[in-house]
Amino acid sequence: MAARPILTTSLSTFSRRAYSSKADKNVAFLGLGNMGGFMAANLVKKGFNVTGYDPSKETLTAAEKNGIKRANSIAAAVESANAVVSILPSNKVVLDAYLGKDGVIKHAQKGALLIDSSTVDPNVPKEIFPIAIENGVGFIDAPVSGGVMGAQNATLAFMSGGRKGDFDRSLPLLQAMGAKQFHCGDVGAGQVAKLANNMLMGITGMATAECMNMGIKMGLDPKVLLDVLNNSSARSWSTEVYCPVPGLVPTAPSSRNYDGGFKNELMVKDLELASGMALGIRSPIPLGAVATQLYRIVQSRGYGQKDFSYVYQLLKEEKK
Ligand code: NAD
Q1: Ligand 1: distance of its center to the CA of 266 in Å?
Q2: Positive or negative CA dihedral for 292, 293, 299, 303?
Q3: How remote is the CA of residue 320 from the centroid of ligand 1, in Å?
Q4: Which listed residue, of 82, 164, 181, 222, carries a Cα 20 to 30 Å from 111's Cα?
Q5: pLDDT in tens, 189-223
Q6: Does the Cβ of 63 fall within 6 Å of ligand 1?
Q7: Shortest-distance Cα residue to atom 34 of ligand 1
Q8: Which of 252, 245, 296, 244 is nearest to 270 (CA)?
Q9: Which option is the CATH number for 24-185: 1.10.510.10, 3.40.50.720, 3.30.465.10, 3.20.20.70?
């Protein structure tokens, strides 16, 4: 899918404004996995009526325990919903779910608002948007940052692309699931922001692993080295919150055997999406390209399910 630049008509806005119109109470939720399960549960907690669909029966059963009404198809989930939220694994799954013959657009109520929070190629929402409008429904892309913890604690950051009116209308839902909501521009702009964020996160993660490994191998006390970095010009989210060296930041995935974080395979997926986007506009991404290769090596060695900070273990293993 060749990337095209996004024409933005509005500057990034950070909005905490209260929503004054009547909220969309009946919500269909598609994709109740690691992220969606918690996000849908938070909508229920905030008083929305949520009907969920996921092809995994076990996932649906788990969601029912959180007050989500079970639907056995996309059509059944969306037919009486004012709003649809989805968070799905890939470009293809999102395109099929929205544009397929049994998909969202075919079965959604006229006037419904569709919100896709999956991380996908920016051309995916751009393909869906005009078809949604033609069929009398609104559509925004609203990918998220903050991981599974953010989904669980309703502290996600949403980066949205779409018409300002649709973004404003989405706010009661986004505020029920997250702490920050950005309107980044026209449809697809949320995905551009998300891919830029994740590419930078991948690069700083890799760089932190590399420098911590070097310093520790030179004999520095890991705690002292991390303290220096966190109080110097190299400080970043990776050093402060997500240190790849086990035992230094108790809440980081590295301190729980690299489980329960942002899977390496999802990092590879996002870096490949970012690479495709950059290629389409001939934007040089030398560091993004190296990061893509390095995380791919981690995956090919069988650690795709581990948090992406596992890259530290790979670097540590290399012998002199
Ligand atoms: P996941 O694999 O845990 O969940 C995806 C769910 O979608 C699964 O339960 C799957 O059965 C379901 N699904 C597949 N096809 C479907 C369909 N046609 N209709 C409805 N449901 C369907 O993945 P996840 O970690 O929840 O990630 C989902 C998306 O969120 C991805 O695009 C990912 O890049 C993005 N994301 C993930 C994180 C994270 O930390 N996990 C953070 C930010 C963004």
Answers
A1: 10
A2: negative
A3: 40
A4: 181
A5: 999 999 999 999 999 999 999 999 999 999 999 99
A6: no
A7: 119
A8: 296
A9: 3.40.50.720
